Amino acid sequence: MVLPLGVCLLWALAASQEICSSPGDLPAPTLILDKGSARHEDTIILLCFVPMDTSVTRVIFCKNGKEIAMLPSDRNRFIYIYESAQPASPESAGEYSCRYQHKDDKNQEKNS
């Protein structure tokens, strides 16, 4: 059965939003806001620290439960950086988080 492209895109969007709204089984990463970036008109910079003993598939940054960025894994990296395209403003306020995904030996995807 072949699904229309629109249905596939909706499924992918729903899957990416799910990681932002519900915690997974893996230990949570640590998210830090670069304090220098919190001033009005500055670029917002978020740092996501993933556990060193975890093999990461990808890192997802979220705002208010919705994905704002996805970064592919880098085996040598445990700190992932998100830099907003827009300068800080009142609209930037919200609840930010980062999550990561990991595929186990059975190719099962797990979320933090």
UniProtKB/TrEMBL annotation:
Question: Does Signal count among this protein's keywords?
Answer: yes
SUPFAM superfamilies per UniProt? Immunoglobulin
Q: Where is this region: Disordered?
A: 86-112
What protein is this chain from?
A: Ig-like domain-containing protein
Per the UniProt entry, the signal peptide is: 1-16
What superkingdom does the record give?
Eukaryota
Q: Where is the Ig-like domain?
A: 27-112
Start-end of Basic and acidic residues biased regions: 101-112
Keywords in alphabetical order: Signal
Instruction: Identify the Gene3D superfamilies for this entry.
Output: Immunoglobulins
Looking up InterPro entries in the UniProt record yields: Ig-like_dom (IPR007110), Ig-like_dom_sf (IPR036179), Ig-like_fold (IPR013783)
